[in-house]
Amino acid sequence: LSPLLAVGIFVPWGIPDGAGDILARIDASSIATWELKPGRWASLIFLSAVAFLTLPRMFQVMVVENADERHLATASWAFPLYLFLMSLFVVPIAVVGLDLLPAGSNPDMFVLTLPLSQGYDGLAMLSFLGGFSSATSMVIVAAIALSTMVSNHIVMPIWLSVARQGATVSGDVRQVVLIARRISIAGILGLGYAYYRVSGGGAALAAIGLISFVGVAQFLPAILGGIFWRGATKSGAVAGLLAGFVLWAYTLFLPSFGGSFILPPAVLADGLWGLHWLRPHALFGVNGLDPLLHALFWSLALNSIAFCLVSLRSFPKPQERLQGAQFVNVFDHNPGAQGWVGDSAGAEDLLVMSQRILGAQQAQDLFTLAATSQGKAGFLPDTSPDFLQRLERELAGSVGAATAHAMVAQIVGGASVSVKDLLAVADETAQMMEYSSQLEHKSLELECSARALREVNEKLTEISVQKDAFLSQISHELRTPMTSIRAFSEILRETDEIPIGERRKYAAIIHDETIRLTRLLDDLLDLSVLENGEAQLDIRTVNLHDVIERSVKMAGHNAGLKIRRKPASEKIELMTDADRLSQVFINLIANAEKYCVADGPELKILVQKKDVTIVVDFIDNGAGIPTKSQPLIFEKFSRLGDQRAAGGAGLGLAICREIMSNLGGSVAYLPGQGGAAFRVILPIYA
User: Fold this and answer.
1) Are the CB atoms for 380 and 350 separated by under 8 Å?
2) How many helices and strands, by DSSP H and E, does the chain display?
3) Residues 6 or more apart from 303 whose CB is under 8 A from it?
4) What angle do CA 197, 201, 203 make, to 5 degrees?
5) Backbone angles phi, psi at 674, to 5 degrees
6) How far apart are CA 433 and CA 522, in angstroms?
7) I want to staple 506 with a disulfide (CB 3.0 to 4.6 A). Which of 9, 488, 544, 568 is the partner?
8) Do the strands 562-565 and 602-610 form a parallel or antiparallel pair, or are they unpaired?
9) What DSSP character marks residue 420?
10) 201: alpha, beta or left, given left = phi > 0 and alpha = psi -120 to 50?
């Protein structure tokens, strides 16, 4: 900027006749009568805005190499001011150059030739150094940006997919990245020089830049469609890009070689295959447009049409929709909540991997700073979500976001959780913490009044915690089937192009989740009625043998579980609700079927009569229930072992407990029986 301003100041005040002569020169110059067609002016403004959004070098400067977001606020006024100062002396330099320099002089060289023509060699040298530094810096930034894209989004994903297991830890990833980027930079510069040689090298720099601007403008429909249109698909974006780039190459890029490369002069003059409506600068019979506006209009039009049509006829895959939501709603969610949980496990492998990508010193500094912030100075940090997010961000600068996430996931082995679920959990946790804090504060105030009030407050706190835990468990159990129903119903509702097999699969999932949800609601309602003592009991005289026999049949136990009974001891008359008692027996038999993992699973049902009570024991030959888990088995939503294999919501034993309480009896776990053992105590007379 400084050399350009120096030449700009020199032109009106350093050349004889001074600044007063500049206005007269402008009036007499052909620039005074030069007119720019409105179409070209609009296309230049549009291209400049699009280039600002889509050029890789702009992203490199504004995002990749930006260490502080506050710098963008400064750039928002400094960059326009920089452009204004650059253009301030353009017209005077152009007018004086056209007037003083020989005809046919290159306008791009006026800032050099004007000082030389007046004998100011030092100013010319300053101008040369300024132009050289500006050109080389632009080439460097553009080459780095493009090579980063090539290595991060082409080379590294391919290498990661074909590399052996654990290569991200043991392999020299940094060397792979460096080699990929060096080769990419050499290839990019080679292609640029090849274009210069093949095109003849005579075109103005501005014209070459505008051709490239129209090329990168082809990304605009896919960018805007991906952000604002939920129906956009990857197939549509690819189709639009292919159509746009073909039109751009045919109408602008290839004609820039002047009929000396691929397109012969006959095609430029008469159109492809002699069809006049396929002439590159008069496509579809549209004549009289500026070549730049003509190429921009037709390439973007066909690009947008192909993008929309293919997107409408294709269906976005779940992964596309998930990734799209993460990008579109980036400011609505906490980017740190990625479902990673853990301690120091995997931190050593992460450190080794980071050293091979970032370098030993930078990786050590990153891990040391994280450990210090966690209060673990001198040790490896915990793999917390915040640390993993920061690590991914640092690695993304070298290998790209997708590759960085895949590498970290391969080591940590975390599972992703939906953003909506994470936000719901976060909100609920925040509410619980706030409520707990309020209760604690209130408890401290009341503690000074009396011991009795403090005991009451502690009891209320315990009840509140139980209520919150119960509501949290219910919301979790309800959210799981509702999330599946909503997701698959949206897919079925939004498109008709799903194959019949996939449609039946989604419908079956919705049906199963609906049944699961209905069963859960029925259990919750049943439990609520029993807890409130509102259950309607049908007390009558029944035979215990008939109740057990019916329970065994209704449980539908598989052939692998052998049930041993003594029918003679079961023939006891008692007053009870046969249906409710059978419900308890069925649940205990079903639990034995699910959780008994012995080689020959067996369940013994033993009946004893003691005075006015009846004792029924259910004992299997499995591994039993761990001592620490025994107090929890009758709690709501309590499930032991593999919850996926267990199924249900964990309400069965809680319902059994309430049924027996309503019947005047009890159900309890018997430890020390070798396997899982439950004892049901019944009164003979209700």
Assistant:
1) no
2) 29, 9
3) 218, 221, 240, 241, 243, 244, 247
4) 145
5) 95, -40
6) 31
7) 488
8) parallel
9) H
10) left
Tens of pLDDT along 582-636?
Answer: 888 888 888 888 888 788 888 899 999 888 899 999 998 888 888 887 877 787 7
> Minimal CA–CA distance to 619: which of 572, 664, 566?
566
**b/e per residue, 351-387, with b = 16+ CB within 10 A?**
bebbbbbbeeeebeebbeebbeebeeeeebbbbbbeb
Report phi then psi at 46, rounded to 5: -65, -45
378 DSSP 8-state letter: T
Measured between alpha carbons, how far is residue 665 from residues 611, 668, 673 in Å?
A: 14, 10, 22
Quickly count: other Cβ atoms within 10 Å of residue 407's Cβ: 24
- Model confidence pLDDT, tens digit, residues 132-182: 888 888 888 888 888 888 887 788 778 777 765 555 544 556 677 788 888
CA–CA distance, 92 with 22 (Å, rounded to integer): 7
For helices 90-100 and 2-14, angle between their N-to-C axes, nearest 10 degrees: 50
Q: How far apart are CA 15 and CA 97, in angstroms?
A: 11
Q: What is the distance between the alpha carbons of residues 122 and 109, in angstroms, rounded to a whole number?
A: 16
- Kindly give the residue spans of alpha helices, DSSP state H, lying in 15-120: 20-28, 38-54, 56-59, 70-87, 90-100, 110-117
pLDDT of 389 > 80? The answer is no
Burial class of residue 318 in the structure, from the number of CB atoms within 10 Å of its CB (0-12 exposed, 13-18 middle, 19+ buried): exposed
Give the C-alpha separation, 579 to 535, whole Å.
12
**What is the Rg, in whole angstroms, of the alpha carbon atoms belonging to the chain?**
39
- The answer to whether the CB of 260 falls within 8 A of the CB of 200 is yes
* Encoded tokens for 142: 């553009």
At 443-469, the pLDDT tens digits run 777 666 667 766 777 766 765 665 666
| pTM (global) more than 0.85 | no
- Residue spans per domain, the chain: 1-136, 202-325, 326-412, 420-531, 540-683
Superfamily the domain 540-683 falls into: Histidine kinase-like ATPase, C-terminal domain (3.30.565.10)
Burial class (CB in 10 A: 0-12, 13-18, 19+), 402: middle
Percent helix, percent strand, percent coil in the chain, to nearest 5: 70, 5, 25
Report the 10 Å Cβ neighbour count for 505: 13
- Rounded CA-CA distance 313/287 in Å is 33
Amino acid of residue 136? T
420-531: CATH topology? Helix Hairpins (1.10.287)
* Total residue count of the chain as it appears in this document: 686
